[in-house]
Automatic annotation (TrEMBL):
Protein name per the record: NAD-dependent protein deacylase
Binding, NAD(+): 14-33, 93-96, 178-180, 222
EC number: 2.3.1.286
Domain Deacetylase sirtuin-type, residue spans: 1-236
Domain note: 2 residues (Tyr-58 and Arg-61) present in a large hydrophobic pocket are probably involved in substrate specificity. They are important for desuccinylation activity, but dispensable for deacetylation activity.
Amino acid sequence: MRGAGFQSIVVLTGAGISAESGVPTFRGPDGLWEGHRVEDVATPQAFRRDPALVQAFYDARRAALARVAPNPAHDALARLDAEWSGNLLIVTQNVDDLHERAGAARMVHMHGELKSALCLACGERQEAPETLSDGPACTRCAAHGRLRPDIVWFGEMPYHMDRIEAALAACDLFVSIGTSGAVYPAAGFVQGARHYGAHTLEINLDPSEGTHFFDEARHGRAGELVPAWVDELLQR
Ligand code: OAD
């Protein structure tokens, strides 16, 4: 991997980048869904059926953010953001706020954010209060009890797709970090980037479902491999 020659980078991150911070991944043995079926907490149907269960699930995850901190992989991507003079877009599937707490700015949350709430009455996205279970009012329309977690559930459209697709079409380096490659459309980004001629690199604990689509793969802990890759790219 040589830093010289690349102009535009897209980095996709998943739950694996936050694992060493203590945020459980989705499909590991300590998976977040443990004790809950995905369809009971992460679909619009689940929210209609049992809003109290879904609100309590996300309230607990929001509260857990206060007990975790960015790890060296988040720090390295924030350093890349600060020092890379070419184009960069960090696309995270994660709903935690560890990239921004590390200092990354050129980033988007494609699956929403725990710290955001969405008003079902007026559609306004707003900073989430500590808990949504108790039916707080919307800051825009004042409707009570209509705020839901601003999380993209199964069957819903991810955020920022136009911007992401434009960045994938223009990038010459695509790097996927800590994602199992099980959930589309993110799992298909590698093929999109390749189609437009980008070099593609996977950094993951073990081979992802789409590992064969990548030009290059490095398997191990993100907290070690991501800082090393960023150093290489910045030619330290
Ligand atoms: P997964 O839990 O499916 O995959 C996490 C990946 O990270 C796995 O391949 C692990 O091997 C890897 N991993 C674990 N620890 C790691 C470490 N220390 N360093 C590097 N890699 C490590 O999580 P995602 O791929 O992010 O969607 O899941 C995608 C989406 O599925 C999530 O955004 C979520 C879920 O449904 C929504 O909530 C909408």
